[in-house]
Write a structure and sequence with these properties.
The complex is a heterodimer of chains A (533) and B (340). Chain A is of the alpha/beta class. Chain A has helices spanning 3-20, 31-39, 52-56, 61-67, 76-79, 93-105, 124-127, 152-160, 165-177, 184-199, 207-217, 241-245, 250-263, 268-278, 312-319, 323-329, 368-384, 386-389, 413-421, 431-447, 472-488, 506-512, 525-532, and strands at residues 22-26, 44-46, 57-59, 72-74, 82-85, 109-114, 132-135, 288-290, 296-302, 345-352, 355-362, 391-399, 402-410, 451-458, 493-497, 516-519. In chain A, β14 (451-458), α21 and β15 form a beta-alpha-beta unit. Chain A is flat, with a radius of gyration of 29 Å. Classes of the chains: A alpha/beta (533), B alpha/beta (340). Chain B: It is an enzyme of class 6 (ligase).
Chain lengths: 533, 340
């Protein structure tokens, strides 16, 4: 993106910030970023760890006690129309939802600044609601020029700017061509086009304005680019191109799409799509969990001391309003502060959870025992270091017409060994049933606050369907469907082909699961372990 | 801020139908709308607020009691008149503290006058109306527990030291969310009577129409609302008429058998599915002015009443609606005019 478009975006934000919702600024710290930030509407700076109380407001206990009446302190969302969220890539889904709600209610401008790291983007719930996107890649120091402020006249012009129908239709068609599902994209583009016309001193939007607007508002939302081949893990956009040709503004549409394309630096789309498709998937580090004894502090909750550690400060705050009432009924109580059990508040913390590695092992056919010993070896070596890495292990085996949890989640090496010993193999390959079982286990693990990882060891294709019939086509379809669901749940997966002559059929399944594919013939235990740790 | 008119929402017929059905019969028990971002989920919920008929409630009563004798004894702000007021549509914000939801000690009165008084929360305000949770899958667990408990019993019980308060809290729970953000707990899922998936329209003409209307609305709200008022009024009348009809809709044994067969075939847990199916079909029949529930009514609402109740197996969002339609054909026989 050039400095000119960035400075145009800054001026647009002044004019139409509240209608656009705000700006997503993706840039590393640099003089360019500082110059641009200085030219944006000035607002209060918030960071991703901001508490609900600071953001949404609440009773101000100190002032309340001093004044003898309830004093509430308004949250930053109430007192400020413009907020700048720094380190937006660290924003949690919860904060994004709260900010999103404020943006939806209207009248707010949010400037989300992230650090421009490759795979770290703010939550989509937030970026979705921010109209403008600016990236400062490729802007060098010599490009910088001062950004002139906008005057009152521009605001008036913006209020009455006219967006001709063909231009608007072309914007909508362009958004479809770019594979944008949400309506917020084209709405922001329309609004931005008006603002650009107004900044330019006109009250009617031209196609050039629309092109500039699309660059600022649609580029980052694009999921496909018509000329490029779509990234492989992204489904093709729904409308076929011939659908657009019925449209009046086809040519205009093409120009808009082209303009948007220009705004995208190479590689950016790929990285955005990668970050997006990663979605709910977590790394292997273990997901976040509340309530543990360690980690980042969270707002305290009422509770019994047996369930955790008492938060003295919060307890006293909860006690304070009751003192007058309690004093009236307990005249002779010598205690300076009357605390009762219901006042007790407990500390809560946000910590990383334990990992559960679920082995799904194919026990069908002749090579079952070899594979099983492979898995056994991996499990044993994992468990032997489980304490340090806080891993739990489970094993699902599938053969004949069904799958079973052979080793329920455990950290005990002895238990796992005992259960593995009695396992026999043979029969068909009910892959879908195994994946169903795996998804049950992953769900249960998530509920317990663990982070599941799936390791699938098999050498063949599914041949038993979910309804236990031996129907290869149906079995494959079932397996695919379950795999898709697992992927949606965002479970990190490793598919290991243990066949002596690895067949290519497993690779598509691995990509469907969104996982890694490995061909590991027997005797590669150490490599398997290395992959997992 | 004035909401966008409900009837001016382009497409999204399933979502609109589900909301209208709960407006006709609130006992259906809520709607869950899941779908992509920017497809008008929250717009529709807020629009519904403008559409709903008014209710009669005691003036100043925090729980919207319909009659004077229903006013809870702890209320001291209620007047003596029964007035018309808009059906409450209350937003439950994600960050809401438990106190704010259930109600708690009135701190101001406690501090200044040393009085024990109850300050009603969002659940009180939502009584006889709608409680809307956006991004429902991000709601904190302890708030979900609380909602489940209240939704089950229809009563909010606040038992904290010093306070022992109960008040009716019957509301239609409306949730919306994006499936990418996370799964809903099965218990919460089951509490929603109906569930619809929304997707963005993909054809250019429809999308242009959406933007055109939105644009007209932003440009001149008053004029836009004036233009859509007749549609809104007739929609409201249709809901009121359907409410009157509702009691008169006949339920035959055949219909009951159909419901049971469908639910057994689908293996849905519990009887709630069957009950919802029946109620939704009855509301649909009433809305169409029919005198008895027919199979086409069941067909229309089966997917939204049952798709979230299928036994939790990994197939269930991939094609649960399609599965239900396939089953409908199996149980009822194929639809005569497949074009419908």
């Amino acid at each position: 993106m050039t400095w000119d478009s960035a400075s145009l975006a800054a001026r647009v934000l002044h004019v139409a910030g509240q209608d656009l919702g705000g700006m997503w600024l993706r840039a590393r710290p640099s003089p360019a970023r500082d110059t641009l930030l200085a030219a944006l509407p000035s607002g209060i700076r918030v960071h991703p760890a901001i508490s609900d109380e600071a953001l949404l407001g609440g009773p101000d206990i100190a002032a309340t006690l001093a004044a003898g009446r309830l004093v509430t302190r308004p949250g930053l969302l109430e007192t400020h129309a413009v907020l700048t969220l720094s380190m937006a890539d660290r924003c949690t889904p919860g904060l994004a939802a709260r900010l999103g709600r404020a943006l939806d209610a209207g009248g707010k401008t949010l400037i989300a600044v992230d650090e421009g790291e490759d795979d770290a983007t703010p939550p989509t719930a937030l970026t979705e609601r921010l109209g403008l996107f600016v990236t400062l890649d490729g802007v060098c120091l010599s490009d910088l020029s001062p950004i002139s402020p906008v005057d009152e006249k521009v605001h008036d012009l913006y209020a009455k700017a006219i967006l001709p129908d063909p231009v608007r239709d072309a914007i909508v068609a362009a958004s479809v061509g770019l594979g944008i599902v949400s309506f917020r994209g084209p709405l922001a583009a329309c609004c931005c086009a008006r603002a650009i016309a107004a900044v330019d001193g006109r009250d009617c939007v031209t196609e050039a304005d629309a092109a500039a607007a699309c660059q600022l508002t649609l580029a980052h939302r694009a999921t496909t680019l018509p000329e490029d081949e779509a990234p492989e893990n992204q489904p093709p956009p729904d409308p076929p191109p011939d659908q657009q040709s019925q449209d009046s503004g086809t040519e205009g549409t093409e120009r808009l799409v082209e303009a948007t394309r220009m705004a995208l630096p190479r590689g950016l789309l790929a990285s955005l799509v990668a970050a997006r498709s990663k979605g709910a998937t977590q790394g292997t580090a273990g997901a976040r969990k509340m309530g543990g004894p360690r980690g980042r502090p969270l707002p305290p909750r009422p509770g019994r001391p047996s369930a955790g550690r008492i938060d003295l400060f919060a307890t006293l705050r909860a006690t304070a309003p009751w003192q007058t009432i309690r004093r009236a009924s307990h005249h002779n109580d010598p205690r300076p502060v009357l605390i009762e059990p219901a006042d007790l508040h407990l500390k809560r913390h946000d910590t990383r959870t334990e990992r559960l590695i679920i082995f799904v092992v194919d026990a069908s056919g002749s090579s079952a025992m070899a594979r099983m010993s492979e898995a056994k070896g991996a499990i044993e070596s994992l468990l032997s270091q489980a304490y340090a890495s806080r891993d739990h292990v489970a094993l699902i085996s599938f053969k004949g017409d069904g799958a079973a949890v052979t080793v329920p989640p455990t950290r005990s090496l002895v238990q796992a060994k005992r259960r593995l010993a009695g396992l026999t193999g043979g029969g068909g390959t009910p892959l879908a049933a195994a994946l169903v079982e795996a998804s049950h286990l992953t769900e249960a693990a998530r509920r317990k606050g663990q982070t599941p990882t799936l390791v699938l060891l098999t050498d063949g294709r599914a041949n038993i369907a979910l309804d236990k019939t031996a129907n290869r086509a149906r079995a494959a379809a079932d397996a695919e469907q379950v795999a898709r669901k697992l992927r949606q749940a965002g479970v990190p997966t490793l598919v290991i082909n243990t066949g002596t002559r690895p067949s290519p059929t497993l690779r598509p399944l691995a990509s469907l699961l969104g996982g890694t594919y490995l061909a590991l013939p027997y005797g590669a235990q150490d490599r398997l372990r290395a992959e997992l740790t | 801020m004035t909401p966008f008119p409900f009837t001016a929402i382009v497409g999204q017929d399933q979502m609109k139908q589900a909301m209208i059905l709960t407006a006709i019969d609130p006992s259906i028990g809520g709607v869950l709308v899941m779908g992509d971002r920017g497809t008008g989920k929250s717009t529709a919920v807020r629009a519904l607020a403008g559409l709903l008929p008014k209710i009669r409630a005691v003036e100043g009563c925090p729980v919207n009691s319909p009659r004077l004798r229903d006013v809870p004894e702890w209320v001291d702000t209620a007047g003596t008149r029964v007035v018309q007021r808009a059906t409450p549509v209350i937003d439950l914000p994600l960050g809401a503290a438990e106190d704010r939801v259930t109600g708690a000690l009135d701190i101001e009165r406690a501090l200044t006058k040393g009085e024990k008084a109850f300050q009603p929360g969002l659940l009180a305000q939502a009584n006889r109306g709608y409680l809307y949770v956006d991004e429902v899958n991000l709601l904190e667990d302890h708030i979900v527990d609380l909602l489940l408990d209240v939704a089950q019993s229809g009563e909010n019980v606040v038992e904290r030291e010093g306070l022992s308060i109960r008040h009716p809290a019957r509301f239609v729970l409306v949730g919306s969310g994006n499936p990418e953000e996370g799964e809903l707990r099965p218990q919460l899922l089951d509490r929603f009577g109906l569930m619809v998936d929304v997707a963005s329209p993909t054809d250019v003409e429809t999308r242009i129409e959406v933007i055109r209307r939105r644009d007209a609305f932003e440009a001149n709200r008053a004029a836009f609302l004036r233009r859509w008022k007749p549609f809104e009024d007739s929609q409201r009348r249709a809901i009121l008429d359907a409410r009157k009809h509702l009691a008169g809709v006949e339920t035959t044994d055949d219909t009951l058998r159909d419901c049971a067969e469908l639910c057994i075939a689908l293996g849905s847990d519990g009887l709630r599915g069957e009950l919802t199916l029946l109620k939704a079909a009855r509301a649909q029949a009433a809305y169409e002015g029919a005198t008895r529930i027919g199979r086409d009514h069941l067909r229309q609402i089966a997917a939204m009443a049952l798709q979230h109740r299928l036994r939790r197996d990994p197939m269930d969002d991939a094609g649960s609606a399609i599965r239900i339609h396939r089953l409908l054909d199996e149980v009822f026989g194929p639809l005569a005019d497949a074009a419908e």
